Amino acid sequence: MSMPDISASEFATCDFDYLIVGGGTAGLVVASRLTEDPSITVGVIEAGPPGFGDPLIDLPGRFGEAVHTKYDWEFETTVQEGLGDRKLEWARGKVLGGSSAINFFTWMRGNKQDYDSWEQLGNKENLGIQRRSTFDGSNVGVWTGLTSVNSDTKRSYAGNEYYLLNASRENFKVICDSIAREVILEPINGQMTATGVRFECAGSEYVAFVRKEVIVSCGSVQSPLILELSGIGNPDILTAANIEVKIENKNVGENLQDRLMVAMVYEIDPGIPNADDLRANQDLAAAADEEYEEHRTGLRTILPCSFTYLPLSHFMREDEISRLATQVKDSWGAQANSPRNQALLEKLTSKEPLGQMEFVFDARNWYPVFGQEDGKQYGTMLQMLQYPFSTGCLHIPPKPSGKARTTSDDKPIIDPKYYRGDGALDREIMAAGLKFGHKITKTAPLCNFVKRRVFPPLAKDDEDNFFEYAKYHTISDWHPMGTCAMGGSEGSKYGVVDERLKVYGTTNLRCIDASVMPVQISCHPQATVYAIAEKGASMILEDLRMQATDRNF
To answer: Where is the Glucose-methanol-choline oxidoreductase N-terminal domain (predicted)?
Structure first.
């Protein structure tokens, strides 16, 4: 098995055409595609370790167990007033392969209207992969989804599919356990140009230089932070962090959109195989491990893969939806006609079949707040709001004036503003979704093996009770996006990157990851992030060919 084995000093002396900050889901895709041309040299700087061969990553039935390990950044939000003054955990992948190495394996596309809305905002091109399948359109309904599991019944992720299979390429260099400090920006011919990346490895600092471009692919949390640490962002935030302002853009780190999730726990028929048994019974866990190794079957292969996506009209009255639309337009005031707000409003009121709420039932207890009883089996109904109006921000923290500047070692300030401001209507929608989710469990076929709801122990199943429950039990679905959004026709007024994913004000710096999505999509985003990376790599190669053509003239 090939592992990244280049030293930091060797990496810093390489002649790179492209440097990629972040060896995650998107970054490794871009690197893999660029290095298909042996004349192109690419270096990737990854903060985490490689995780090849670790059962916490590889085994489908152990999904979620890599959270709170060395593979997780373990971010945390600020205190959220809309959630009863709670802080929420934010798991993000700190490993070669990024969050594709620790996510819950789900692979799906969003609704066609999700991607069309990006173009309507003024981003002229679609994802660029020509449609060859008729399996597209609306995601509304009940269906069995795909999972990112390979033919060996192990996780398929960016680390093993895009790096490991191509690790022998001489032009593809990866360094792990190395923290990027900043992209070095210099004014060349009157324009800001990325000339390299400053990074730290094993306590020593290095600089890797680049000939053509730097690509930031650190994800929705860290891509905007790297831009700010490099001097791109809101002058007030940069000055408070003792960082020189090189490019003013107040949108960096703004437009943070994260999906909301609430769990309800049910006692179910004890005869149903349940992954909770493995946590409670070490002998059973050992037997499950043995069965998996020998036959690739059993509880270690089980994943949630049945999904329901429903429009609001399925569980809310038309007059209720109209009231919410009026409420949010009044809240926006003069901003009601901004392209982004119009896109959000269209998703709320659309007559098209949009999956605005996701429902998943899984035979295990997802909610640690509920203490289960020995000898009983539990299942969880999950409700996930797909198009939240809650919009927040994340930024680097300030430093005392005259002191050292903020660095990537300092914890970011993550404030999603859940259920606050315009997001107040999210809580109303979630309450209606909870009521409907409970109705699903009392309807065949689920009612045939669901005995009773044990959490929350509400006296009545009305929306007032669910409304209160949502405040104190909503958690993150860990799908943040939008913090380096494409600006579309409004340019840097509303965005951070243009339609070619180049950072406004620079000649050769791009962001390629989930942070560039301008508005949320109705699906788990893994497949879309891969598509963005594939499209981003194609754009880089197109621009490279165009430059070569221009030189020939």
So the answer is: 93-116, 219-233
How is residue 42 written in tokens? Answer: 């690419």
Q: Residue type at 494?
A: Y
pLDDT given at position 133:
45
CATH number (domain holding residue 517): 3.50.50.60
Supply the angle between the helices 463-473 and 424-441 in degrees, to the nearest 10: 110
478 is in an annotated binding site: yes
C-beta of residue 522 within 8 angstroms of C-beta of residue 111: yes
Mark whether 473 is an active-site residue: no
pLDDT tens digits, 170-200: 999 999 999 999 999 999 998 999 999 999 9
Instruction: Please pick, among 395, 438, 473, 524, the residue that the annotation labels catalytic.
Output: 524
Q: How far apart are CA 385 and CA 220, in angstroms?
A: 19
Q: What is the pLDDT of residues 257-290, one digit of tens each?
A: 999 999 999 999 988 878 888 877 889 999 999 9
Tell me whether residue 130 is in a domain.
Answer: no
Q: CA 530, CA 541: separation in Å to the nearest integer?
A: 17
Burial readout 409-441 (b: 16 or more C-beta within 10 A, e: otherwise): eeebbbbbbbbbebbbbbbbbbbbbbbbbbebb
Q: Are 158 and 100 in contact (CB under 8 A)?
A: yes
- Please tell me the distance from the alpha carbon of residue 324 to that of residue 510, in angstroms, as a whole number: 37
Q: Give yes or no: 314 in active site.
A: no
Asked if 407 and 427 sit in the same domain, the reply is: no
Q: Is 82 found in the same domain as 34? A: yes
DSSP class of 213: E
Q: Against a cut of 0.70, is the pTM above it?
A: yes
pLDDT at 351: 86
Smallest CA-to-CA distance from 118 within 458, 547, 520, 533 is with 520
Contact 519, 343 (CB under 8 A): yes
**344 CB-contact burial (10 Å; exposed 0-12 / middle 13-18 / buried 19+):** buried
pLDDT at residue number 132: 41
Q: Quick check: is 138 in a domain?
A: no
Q: Which CATH number belongs to the domain containing residue 461 in this structure?
A: 3.30.560.10
Asked whether residue 118 is marked as a ligand-binding residue, the answer is no
Q: Residues in the chain with pLDDT < 50?
A: 131-134
> Which residue range(s) make up the domain with 201?
1-108+148-257+403-414+479-553
Contacts of 71 (CB under 8 A, 6+ apart): 48, 49, 51, 56, 57, 93, 94, 95, 101, 102
Residue 529 lies in a domain: yes
Rounded Cα distance between 42 and 170, Å, is 10
Residues 285, 59 contacting (CB under 8 angstroms): no
Q: Is 480 annotated as a binding residue?
A: no
